[in-house]
Amino acid sequence: QVQLVESGGGLVQPGGSLRLSCAASGIFFSIYNMGWYRQAPGKQRELVARITRGYSTNYVDSVKGRFTISRDNAKNTVYLQMNSLKPEDTAVYYCNAVDQYAYWGQGTQVTVSL
Predict the structure, then answer these.
(1) Helices (H) and strands (E) in the chain — how many of each?
(2) For residue 9, how far is the Cα from the chain centroid?
(3) Given the DSSP bridges, would you call strands 46-51 and 91-98 parallel, antiparallel or unpaired?
(4) β-strands 108-112, 10-12: how paired?
(5) Quick check: helix, strand or coil at residue 62?
(6) Which of 34, 32, 30, 9 is nearest to 96 (CA)?
(7) Predicted confidence (pLDDT) per residue in 7-39, tens digit
């Protein structure tokens, strides 16, 4: 059974930082391309950052220079370090694993507010 379990979300003030983690089980993690998506109320889900099995990364323009995606294949975990958070980063953040099939986590809420 495949599971992606996100953690690390919460409430943070503008300018603050959070680190999201996504622990995977039931898949051969190292061959999967991993991504973080987010969905704000009333908006479509969007790709935030992606890291390939070859460690190439890409980011949506709005988070470049503030967010960093990384992976630890030994721990079957992908991370999203989020710095200089803004209110517009408020959303539910989802972990995604893609190879032949695609899998999703249940999401973790990130709220950036005073």
Answers:
(1) 0, 11
(2) 10
(3) unpaired
(4) parallel
(5) helix
(6) 34
(7) 999 999 999 999 999 999 999 999 999 999 999
Residues 6+ apart with CB under 8 A from 76: 23, 24, 25, 29
Which of 56-64's residues contact partners 24+ apart within 8 Å by CB, and which partners?
62/88, 63/89
- The alpha carbon torsion through 56, 62, 63, 65 (nearest 10 deg) reads 90
Q: What is the pLDDT of residues 36-53, one digit of tens each?
A: 999 999 999 999 999 999
CA–chain centroid gap for 18, Å, is: 11
Asked whether the beta carbons of 12 and 111 are under 8 A apart, the reply is yes
8, 39, 48, 57 from 15: Cα distances, Å? 17, 20, 18, 23
